[in-house]
Amino acid sequence: MAKKKVAKFKESIGLDIGSHSVKMIHLKKQHDSFRLLNYEVKPTVPAGVDYTISDLTLDRFAPVISGMLRSMKINTKKIKHLVSSVGGDNTSIKQIRTIFLPDEELESALFFEAKKHLPISGSDMILDYQVLSVEEKTNNMNILLTSTTKDLLMEHSQILADAGLTPGIVDIESLAVANSFALNNFVEDGVYIILNIGAHKTNMVMYSPIMKFFARDIPWGGFHFTKDIMKIKDISFEQAEDFKIEHGLKTEEINEESKSAITLDISEKTAAEQIIHEVKRSLRFYVKEAGSSDFRKILLVGGGSKLIGLPEYIADHLNIPTELFNPFINLELPDKYRDQQDPQLALAIGLAMRPE
Ligand SMILES: Nc1ncnc2c1ncn2[C@@H]1O[C@H](COP(=O)(O)OP(=O)(O)OP(=O)(O)O)[C@@H](O)[C@H]1O
Ligand SMILES: [Mg+2]
User: Fold this and answer.
1) Every domain of the chain and the residues it spans
2) Measured from the CA of 41, which atom of ligand 1 is nearest?
3) Which fold has domain 1-88+149-184+327-356?
4) Strand 11-17 versus strand 21-30 pairing type
5) What separation in Å is there between the alpha carbon of 151 and the centre of ligand 2?
6) Looking at the CA of 305, which ligand is closest?
7) How far is CA 184 from each of CA 35, 69, 216, 334, rounded to the nearest angstrom?
8) Do 1-88+149-184+327-356 and 187-326 agree at the fold level?
9) 135-184 confidence digits (pLDDT tens)
10) What percent of the chain has pLDDT over 70?
11) Contact status, residue 94 vs residue 178, Cβ threshold 8 Å
12) Ligand nearest to the CA of 306
């Protein structure tokens, strides 16, 4: 994650291209804080349309982004600091520890290290790294290795180019999720779990100022919450989406026939149960890997986190205090956005606040 350091740029754009919606945020840098200039969230698919990921061809995104640039009055030629992200199966991130290596040897050594630690291999792999710290006593280095594929980056650059943008920094999603929290907060020691619940996936990040960084993507999100309701209540996707937004996980709001159906098919887990199951697995893994179970809090962000009753549901099932995280917390807000705290913008804010 980026350390709090002074950024050189004057304005920045954070662009989070999600499967359900595109989030764009425009910030102005002032001294050591940021002022919100503008932001927008625009769906990639018309509301209420049931879609699968494979329906989302690449050409769907550029027109949405262009429209947002126009309505936010952003002159693409003047953008100096554009930060966007890639996520999902073809990206990975891992913190490793190695003996101290001078800069000129680091890159080639890490390439070989990466093969041991990251699931991506071959000539298609693009590797990046960030030295997090050098341990005083042992002189060992803690390094964050990230990798993605050439194909994924090319597809991403094509979307940006089609929208008239010149690609700038491209981060891995989970890193930006960590930044949205770490750059915004004074955190105490201990481990914070951040869940960015999107439509088709949830980025899970374990962030700690002193312990190991861990991140993975869980293939469940808000889309699957809607699918559950659709099945349980036997209604259309559009009706289920409306129902979800109005009632969330508050089972007392759901009528009798569907209440029993929520736990009806024992063999089939609901999306909420799947997420709990996967988070539990990762927590167990983390305890083994990092040797710490000092879990302080679960912070929820992403559109899916707005599901009514979800923080309580997660807290009950994992026994860790859980709350929505307000990513606008440290931004200076103009009057028209004074009470803004939409967690759906967290990743975009993490991107825009990233130092060069
Ligand atoms: N008020 C709300 N209550 C419940 N769910 C909501 C609410 N508002 C939005 N959502 C859900 O949030 C999801 C979209 O969130 P988000 O924009 O973070 O996803 P995305 O980034 O497009 O998806 P992904 O990262 O999986 O590609 C959708 O499933 C939508 O139904
Ligand atoms: Mg997303």
Assistant:
1) 1-88+149-184+327-356, 187-326
2) 17
3) Nucleotidyltransferase; domain 5 (3.30.420)
4) antiparallel
5) 20
6) 1
7) 13, 26, 21, 18
8) yes
9) 888 989 999 999 999 999 999 999 999 999 999 999 999 999 999 998 88
10) 92
11) no
12) 1
Q: Which atom of ligand 1 lies at the shortest distance from residue 225's CA?
A: 29
Query: Ligand 1 site: residues with CB under 6 angstroms?
Result: 18-21, 198-201, 221-223, 226, 241, 244-245, 302-304, 306-307, 344
Q: Which of 302, 294, 307 is nearest to 325 (CA)?
A: 302
Note the ligand closest to the C-alpha atom of 250: 1
pLDDT 10s per residue in the chain (356 long)?
Answer: 655 555 578 999 999 999 999 999 999 998 889 999 999 999 998 877 888 888 888 889 999 999 999 999 999 988 989 999 999 888 989 888 889 988 888 888 888 878 777 766 667 888 888 888 888 889 899 999 999 999 999 999 999 999 999 999 999 999 999 999 988 887 888 999 999 999 999 999 999 888 889 999 999 999 999 999 999 999 999 999 999 999 998 754 444 445 455 554 556 789 999 999 999 999 999 999 999 999 999 999 999 999 999 999 999 999 999 999 999 999 999 999 999 999 999 999 999 998 87
Supply the pTM of this predicted model: 0.92
Atom 8 of ligand 1: nearest residue by CA position: 303
List the CATH code of the domain at 187-326.
3.30.420.40
Residue 253 makes CB contacts below 8 A (sequence gap 6+) with 246, 247
Atom of ligand 1 nearest to the CA of 202: 26
Strands 21-30 and 82-86: unpaired
For ligand 2, the distance from its centroid to the CA atom of residue 18, given in whole angstroms, is 4
Q: What is the pLDDT of residues 39-63, one digit of tens each?
A: 999 999 887 788 888 888 888 999 9
Q: What's the angle, vertex CA 34, arms to CA 33 and CA 40, rounded to 5?
A: 160
- How far CA 40 is from CA of 65, 67, 117, 250, in Å, comes to 10, 10, 37, 29
Rounded to the nearest angstrom, the distance between the alpha carbon of 307 and the centre of ligand 1 is 9
- Please give the number of the atom of ligand 1 that sits closest to the Cα of 173: 25
